[in-house]
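Structure, all two chains, one model.
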Amino acid sequence: MVPSLGNITLWLSLLLAIFQFVISHKKNFYSVLQFNKIAVNGLLFCSLASFFSLMYCHIVSDFSVINVFQNSHTTKPLLYKVSGVWGNHEGSMLLWILVLTIFNYFIFKLYNQKNIIFISKTLEAQAIIIIGFLLFTILTSNPFDRMTTSHTNGLGFNPLLQDPALAIHPPLLYIGYVGFSAAFSFSVAAMSINVEEKIPWHSYMKPFVLAAWIFLSAGIAFGSIWAYYELGWGGWWFWDPVENASFMPWLLGTALIHSLITVEKRKSLQSWVLLLSILSFLLSVIGTFLVRSGILTSVHTFALDPTRGIYILTFVALLGGYSLILFGLKSKNFLNRHCFSFFSREGSILVNNIIMIVVCASVFLGTIYPLLVEIFSNNKISVGEPYFNSITIPIMMPAILVMGMGPMLSWGKADVIGILTKSLPSILLAVVISSIFFWVYRSYNMLGLAGIVLAFWIMSNILLTTFRQLNIKNKEVTQENIPKYSGGMIIAHLGVAFLILGITGSSVWQKEKIIRMKVNDETSIHNYNIAFKEVSEVMGPNYVALQGIFWVYNNKKNMITKLKPENRFYPVTNNSTTEASIHTNLSRDLYVVLGEGDVNRGWIVRIYYNPLVVWIWIGVFAIFLGGLFSMKNNLKKLKRLSI
Amino acid sequence: MKKKILISPIIVFFLILFVFFYLLIIDRNPSELPSVLINKKVPAFETKSLLENKIFVSPNEFRNETTLVNFFATWCKPCRDEHPYLIKLSNEKELKIIGINYKDDSKKAIKWLEKLGNPYSNVLVDSNASLGIDWGVYGLPETFIVNSNGIIKYRLVGPITKKNYHAFVLKVKEVEK
């Protein structure tokens, strides 16, 4: 019953989406408004019903549904039965559609007296995207397909994915990807209406881009956290094609947010914004394509199916073809003769944009390079960490340098000498803090030096700008061109500084030790002694685990903590996972993984000393907060627009 | 000048899509991996045979006909899925298949072959994974095609399945020529 309900509502969604597309063309404003109300609300309701039907099937373990049979098992804990809904290809497409319709609803909510044509155009574009994904789901990957033979239990769910961080990672990521669909629709709509109609399209677009970017950041962070403690290799980023697929839209999204600020304040860079919002969404969909067509091999690969690949690619070709041709024809209307100096806020934002795009293009090239080589030479190669690190790090460095300066510059044109005198205190401050840092740690490395100095450079700049800001407020000086700083920017930029600190620390000064240990053996890593005390068996809800207990002492022989890494075996799917055990403080992580072995020969134990890792998570959290803060301000502005 | 730049995104976009389309349409298998052993002679080794009480001496046994070398184990689930296709290859195509039982319990392996059928002309024991290292195996199952001169011509990582069976037979025929 419930699976049929899900299937019916899925088809109904398709009809409503087509209805929304057709109706948005109509010239009669009143009927457009009324019919769209039905379409948008109906669409939201149907996709919710469809999504929750599938969730219900997973929760009650209805194994007549192929999707449940293939991905679930009765012994699975409830949380993973729920997250199992989007842990597979078909279900995740359903979630994707649900998020699309939610954004569709929010776009609809923007309707007011002045913007009817513009919002209708946007809803029309959004309807096309929804139709495309619905057709894809229904035709190639319907999650409600049934089986004739009945089974008493399912095949189980990949135990690596049974993890709280990974349970919420996909929804966050999808909200991010799909959020860019709104930006895409807005920019298509902006290009299709007459330019004479002064619609503040960028102000409508901004909250959506911000939301997408905030969620994408959080989604990527949860994926990294998962990789960090579940994969057991002490790293948190592996330049896997799928990680790149989420990183590329994030880079463009970052560029997009910054150019949107420029458009808002100075009306320049408009065509940039249009292009960036189209590209961010196209890259999100191409990312989906790369993961689900089996064209690249990756740890995340879903079921391999070329027909799905052909479908998504055709859809991307249509969306991209239409929007980019429109861009080629219409975007010249958005070019303006507004000039600005290189040393200005716009100038710094433009530099930031160009660098983000160059990094994005390099990552893209690295991701598809193995495919290009295969076509032209029939050789197989793989592109990995060395390429990505050696390309992205040097390109990012100037961006970070500019990022420290940018907020201090004024719009239009800034006085070069004035900037130098202004930034002198922060240069000094950065140098002083970095020297103290190196004096304490006494470890020197060129890359480490650069990373630490850059991190403190941003921090000192933020400190000083905040200080100045408070000063200005006190004196109540009101003057044109004096830069104002939004709280969101300050928090998010501070987050980036923390992030750089963490990335630098954990990648430059990481220590690794892989040894075979028997019970009562002892080893040391960077001033810590680690003693292997015992091994015991632990029962989990759907696994049995071997747990090692390690006592950690510092160099004064005081015990700091007990670490309990596990080696879990899941009988249903017949595979095992490792759970790292980590002791965290602000300056370092101690990370222990229990590997293969037995009582006689001992176990392989991997121990990592990872400096400053926690700052990565603190940094991302600050970026997330900064985004939320700025979201609040932008929603306020949006409210003012609708009055 | 400026206006011309505006159409560059669409050109780049379609070039990239073209590459993707091409890759999807051609018959390609992402799990085909290169091996430094391709076009090299098979590694020299000596090992026990699982079912007969004989010693197998490597390069000598790879003469006269095209041979498949298949690494398998009873603990490997994809190997079980692959097994019917190996039987098909051995019965219908009359291919000589040498199985290498990798890091496994010999008793279990014998029972396994009794239950599922034995497609192998000879099964070699590799209990300490040394043959796996010689052949550069990194995941089970893996299958190599060795030509009649004892030269390794092809390596397949992962199981032979319904989907790649046909392509695999074509590869064998190519090597046989």
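The first strand of chain A starts at residue 511 and ends at 517.
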